[in-house]
Amino acid sequence: xxxxxxxxxxxxxxxxxxxxxxxxxxxxxxxxxxxxxxxxxxxxxxxxxxxxxxxxxxxxxxxxxxxxxxxxxxxxxxxxxxxxxxxxxxxxxxxxxxxxxxxxxxxxxxxxxxxxxxxxxxxxxxxxxxxxxxxxxxxxxxxxxxxxxxxxxxxxxxxxxxxxxxxxxxxxxxxxxxxxxxxxxxxxxxxxxxxxxxxxxxxxxxxxxxxxxxxxxxxxxxxxxxxxxxxxxxxxxxxxxxxxxxxxxxxxxxxxxxxxxxxxxxxxxxxxxxxxxxxxxxxxxxxxxxxxxxxxxxxxxxx
Length: 303
Description:
Elements: E1 2-6, H1 9-12, H2 16-28, E2 33-36, E3 47-48, E4 51-52, H3 62-70, E5 77-80, E6 83-84, H4 90-103, E7 112-114, H5 119-124, H6 132-148, E8 154-157, E9 162-166, E10 180-183, H7 186-195, E11 198-201, H8 207-223, E12 232-236, H9 243-251, E13 256-259, H10 266-279, H11 294-302
Parallel strand pairs: 1-2, 1-13, 2-5, 6-7, 7-10, 10-11, 11-12, 12-13
Antiparallel strand pairs: 3-4, 8-9
Helix pairs in contact: 2-10, 3-4, 4-6, 7-8
């Protein structure tokens, strides 16, 4: 099991020194990946469930933040948690993602998309809120079509997007990018199974509902002729989680846990990150088991 960390721009700010130090600390301490969230626009009174969002929260653009971080790191994988896909045109987005991937040496590997939960945000970007799920499905298909296309261009005639001999260069490293699906609904689980390379459910689901949704994602993968065992399973975790917590997640099939420090100051955040890294031995001597092999350590302990 791998361990990623989230830089919450609304809480930690979009200060370049703070962001770069956070990313470099994460890399030095052995974290696999760095995630950045997104909101395109907020309005006074906007709520996600019972939680009201301060409209002045500084949500930085996640791809701009990740491109900045890539310049000061060498190993850290780059992720979005989540990028609100319906509010981005896939032709423009395909180019942006490919560029970040190339400039980072192929590290834009944890693109995680969601459909958004704020009607006002959809309205601000000119998107019909009721269509955002279908729009996201089609956008995922268009992104992959563009990345796979050659100099003859690609065509597409869908409900939301029409392409006629469109070429998109440069390509990501290897020709394409994995697309993970985030969200707390059964629709998100179905989308992950049908189209996603991974499933990253929200943090407020009950354990039984989590199990049902992951089983649903796997079932839809099988139904569409895809390998359910190839579906990565990412979950949010606490920066204070124990080894027992991690072992339980590994048994549930979780392949990656993403945590976020809670301290208000950057020194406090680094202390929390360092304590987590020490607890899970993220930095190990050459030849030792790495953080990516946590499930193997669980199996070895049981045997």
